[in-house]
Design brief:
The protein is α+β, with helices and mostly antiparallel strands and 107 residues long. It has one domain. Helices cover 46% and strands 26% of the residues. It has four helices and six strands; from the N terminus they run ββααββααββ. The protein has a four-stranded mixed sheet, covered by helices on one side. Strands 3-4 form a two-stranded antiparallel sheet. 23% of the residues are buried.
């Protein structure tokens, strides 16, 4: 599966093997557990992030992984989005410091 990660004017198609999506459940659950107690999303504190907000948080983590050239983490975070939001095709990551402006594209 492929998740298109859009940063500014660049699109990065991240190829995620089906096997990773089916076998990384423990990793996905750890990410969810970290967010269960709330998350600072730019200037706003969100007590219980919904699924879209969780993908926005993951998008912020993706941006950091890209800056650190951590391809393995990029694949795992893309797998999280694809596993949690069936039909997700892209994630447009906001680079202006406003996590809530990151857009999840389904379809």
């Amino acid at each position: 599966m492929i998740l298109k990660v859009v940063v500014d004017d660049q699109t990065y198609p991240i190829s995620v093997p089906e096997q990773i999506i089916s076998e990384a459940g423990d990793f996905f659950n750890k990410i969810d557990k970290d967010m269960d107690n709330g998350w600072q999303m730019s200037r706003d504190w969100v007590d219980n992030p919904n699924q879209e907000q969780r993908c926005q948080i993951v998008g912020d983590k993706m941006l950091t992984a890209m800056q650190n050239d951590n391809k393995q983490l990029m694949v795992l975070l893309s797998a999280y989005v694809l596993a949690r939001v069936p039909g997700a095709s892209a994630l447009r990551i906001d680079t202006n410091g406003e996590m809530l402006e990151t857009e999840l594209v389904v379809g």
